[in-house]
Amino acid sequence: MPKPGAKITALGCYVPPRVVTNYDLAQLVDTTHEWIVERTGIHERHWVEKGTPTSELAVKAVEDLLRQRQIEADEIELIIVATVTPDMFFPSTACVVQNKIRATRAWGFDISAACSSFLYALTTGAQFIESGKHKKVLVIGADVMTSIVDPQDRATIILFGDGAGAVLLEPTEEGEDCGIIDYHHEIDGSGGVHLNMPAGGSLNPPTHETVDKKMHYVHQNGQAVFKFAVRKMEELSLGMLKKHNLTGDDISAFIAHQANLRIIDATADKMKLDPQKVIKNIHKYGNTTAGTIPLATRDAIAAGKLKKGDLALLAAVGAGFTSGSMLIRWAY
User: Fold this and answer.
1) Which of 13, 46, 95, 115 is an active site residue?
2) Which is deepest, 3, 74, 151, 271, by most CB within 10 Å?
3) Taking the alpha carbons of 303, 248, 272, 227 in that order, is the dihedral positive or negative?
4) Do 171 and 6 meet the contact criterion of CB atoms below 8 Å apart?
5) How much is the average pLDDT of 67-93?
6) Where are the domains of the chain?
7) Does the pLDDT value for residue 283 go beyond 80?
8) Active site includes 245?
């Protein structure tokens, strides 16, 4: 009997109701709406109320998914949570989510690969489906980035939003032409100096000094990240198409991590993609890290740009540096 493939059969998303506009941020830091839009393409983002954990966003995305798929939580066998803002170092956020949704049959774990986390988690989840060990794998991308961003740093506070998305992976039926076709991932650890949160781990445990020096917030070299992101997303995306004898004309949707509009546009231009195929929603959500790709996928479906049988190309670059691309034929 042929090995099953892994297909996405449902997608759920959630963003907190609080909308923070560029004009709101101009009251907090030295910036303007025009300055932010010109450099990032972001107009607004959704922020949680203080004290809201990542698991709460994840659970709401999962509840949305369960409603759409019309299944119960106890049918889920594995939960993988992609995040850089876990509720706490341990237990894993997957454990917290499992308990909150009462997925009594599931086991799970977290994956941390920064803005590439969701793709890494999707790839990992697919292995458990393709092995035949599991029939229903839940992959969640969720982050509360406002918990690790300096509210006084205009270079980072403008970029990030909070949000979550979840997908359900199930086996393809025999002869069914859909699901995850291929993936490719890389890391370049030399890039760690350009985007990181210096303190909180074993290298720099929490002290009064690390707090005073704001070492528990995101630090980034924006120019270095920009250059790497454009080069690597183009390289991995074109490489994936070439491997399968495809061109940009063959795909229906290019769904890239929503970090910066200039990065997305520069990558799409280098790939010579039809602008209508490039999915962009950073203007209303900002960078939600592990949440960007599922949120963008939802918008692609809603806009009629991703339908059953369509080819979608996913790509992401994150701190580390981490990177990846994935080719999917949409299942529903």
Assistant:
1) 115
2) 271
3) positive
4) yes
5) 98
6) 6-171, 179-329
7) yes
8) no
Active-site position among 22, 194, 257, 281: 257
For the full predicted model, state whether its pTM sits above 0.85. Answer: yes
CATH of domain 6-171: 3.40.47.10
Q: What is the pLDDT of residues 159-173, one digit of tens each?
A: 999 999 999 999 999
**Looking at residue 3, what is its pLDDT?**
85
CATH number for region 179-329: 3.40.47.10
Burial of 297 (0-12, 13-18, 19+ CB in 10 A): buried
Catalytic-residue membership of 43: no
At CB < 8 A and 24+ separation, what contacts does 49-56 make? Answer: 49/16, 49/18, 52/16, 52/144, 52/162, 53/87, 53/96, 53/144, 54/83, 54/85, 54/86, 54/87, 54/93, 54/142, 54/143, 54/144, 54/164, 55/87, 55/93, 55/96, 55/97, 55/100, 55/142
CA distances from 144 to 21, 101, 108, 204, 221 (A): 17, 19, 20, 22, 21
Annotated active-site residue 115? The verdict is: yes
